[in-house]
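Hello forum,

I keep getting stuck at the same step: I have a sequence, I want structure tokens, and every attempt I make locally crashes halfway through. Rather than fight my setup again tonight, could one of you with a working pipeline run this one for me? It's a single chain of 110 residues.
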Amino acid sequence: VQLVESGGGLVQPGGSLRLSCAASGFTFSRSTMRWTRQAPGKGLEWVSTVSSDGSRYYADSVKGRFTISRDNAKNTVYLQKNSLKPEDTAVYYCAQGIVRGQGTQVTVSS
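Reply #2:
Ran it on my machine without issues. Output:
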């Protein structure tokens, strides 16, 4: 299983970013995928999940601002992040089962 995140960076409050996670080594279309994050000095926090049937789930802290999606043809899961806040600053990880990627840093700051 390999997961490679991309799309992080520095963005101003209120801005947007789209994270991508390219997956390989397993049957992506049949897998539940999720995004988690870890802010500086804090533990790992679940952000969002998309199941194999397309059902989506969000943490209350991101509901209405983040959208998870998947493209089974590309073995890729996305996280569209809008209305970003400084408290969204974290390393974002893509995960499948107990495996997660190396993460991508998102910094929200003016």
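DSSP finds no helices and eleven strands in the chain. If your local run keeps crashing, start a new thread with the error log.
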